[in-house]
């Protein structure tokens, strides 16, 4: 969106659209966001819904130990009180909106469907599925960036956006999580599986490359081109994801979890985990078991 004044659009959206009316219900909006370079953030949670639209860039969305690829056009949702994180080394051009779902006693047909979004499994929709919400996002952002605009147009587009989110995110009987890039490279595919299955091992770049019968340079390039991350960064992220899962789902001592996740010492594990999660391993476990 090179021709869009992102700062003006963000300011206008936040000034004009703090509440959105759908039928006879008002939806409180906490904030609108529009960032041209959104990099990795810490693990965190909200008490409200936040829906993000990747206008451009590559990265990952992490939720409850699962990692989802983000590419141009990806749409993803963070639900209330669920710890999540966005990871991107190259930066994402990102639009997002945070809103409340009205209380149960105020339900109408649309709000009832928003309530169903608490139970969705498919939290990331890839751009190749062309979610209708993305088209509405583009129109809303462009309208908000214009020197002059009709207030009614902004309200109509924002209402349409919230309604379109209901049809974009639907509960699915069978999860279809896609942990890999849409266009899979066979060598990279094998590398990702090998890494995930052997995280307790050192997994040096050249050793994994030799297993795959490619050069270390070639494997390094495959990671940077297909995941937007270096091999080292991707491996460290996978180790932390496994550690989070073990902290939540197992009773293993933290020292053993560090070893199972491939960290050479509990001190190094604690330092890296705290940097990437903003919690010590013990505090992270306590959040889920308190």
Write the SSE topology.
Elements: H1 6-16, E1 19-22, E2 25-38, E3 49-56, E4 59-63, E5 66-70, E6 75-78, E7 84-87, E8 92-99, H2 109-115, E9 124-125, H3 132-145, H4 151-168, H5 186-197, H6 205-212, H7 216-227, H8 231-249, H9 254-260, H10 266-277, H11 281-289
Antiparallel strand pairs: 1-2, 2-8, 3-6, 3-8, 4-5, 4-7, 6-9
Protein name: AraC family transcriptional regulator
Pfam families: AraC_binding (PF02311), HTH_18 (PF12833)
InterPro entries: AraC-bd, Homeodomain-like_sf, HTH-like, HTH_AraC, HTH_AraC-typ_CS, RmlC-like_jellyroll
Strand line-up across the major sheet: 1-2-8-3-6-9
H/I helix tally: 11
**What kind of sheet is the major sheet?**
6 strands, antiparallel
The name CATH uses for the topology of the largest domain is: Jelly Rolls
Mean pLDDT: 87
Strand content: 15-25%
Total DSSP E strands? 9
Return the CATH architecture of the largest domain: Sandwich
Overall shape: globular
Number of individual domains:
2
At the fourth CATH level, what is the homologous superfamily of the largest domain?
Answer: Regulatory protein AraC
Whole-angstrom Rg:
21 Å
Structural class determined from secondary elements: alpha+beta
């Amino acid at each position: 969106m090179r021709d869009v004044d992102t700062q003006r659009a963000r300011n206008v959206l936040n000034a004009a659209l703090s509440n959105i009316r759908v039928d006879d219900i008002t939806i409180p909006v906490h904030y609108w966001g529009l960032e041209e370079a959104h990099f990795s953030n810490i693990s965190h949670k909200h008490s409200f819904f936040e829906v993000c639209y990747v206008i451009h860039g590559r990265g990952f969305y992490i939720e409850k130990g699962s990692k989802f690829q983000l590419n141009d056009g990806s749409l993803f949702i963070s639900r209330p009180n669920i710890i999540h994180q966005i990871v991107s080394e190259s930066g994402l051009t990102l639009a997002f909106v945070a809103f409340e779902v009205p209380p149960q006693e105020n339900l109408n047909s649309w709000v009832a469907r928003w309530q169903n979004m608490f139970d969705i499994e498919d939290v990331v929709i890839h751009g190749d599925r062309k979610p209708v919400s993305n088209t509405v996002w583009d129109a809303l952002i462009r309208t908000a960036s214009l020197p002059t605009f009709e207030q009614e147009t902004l309200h109509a587009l924002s209402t349409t956006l919230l309604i379109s989110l209901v049809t974009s995110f639907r509960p699915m009987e069978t999860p279809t999580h896609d942990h890999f890039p849409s266009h899979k490279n066979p060598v990279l595919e094998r590398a990702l599986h090998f890494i995930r299955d052997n995280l307790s091992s050192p997994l040096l770049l050249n050793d994994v490359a030799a297993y795959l019968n490619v050069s270390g340079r070639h494997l390094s390039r495959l990671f940077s081109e297909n995941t937007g991350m270096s091999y080292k960064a991707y491996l460290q992220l996978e180790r932390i994801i496994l550690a989070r899962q073990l902290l939540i789902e197992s009773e293993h001592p933290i020292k053993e979890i560090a070893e199972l996740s491939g960290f050479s010492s509990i001190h190094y594990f604690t330092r890296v985990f705290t940097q990437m999660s903003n919690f010590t391993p013990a505090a992270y476990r306590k959040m889920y078991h308190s």
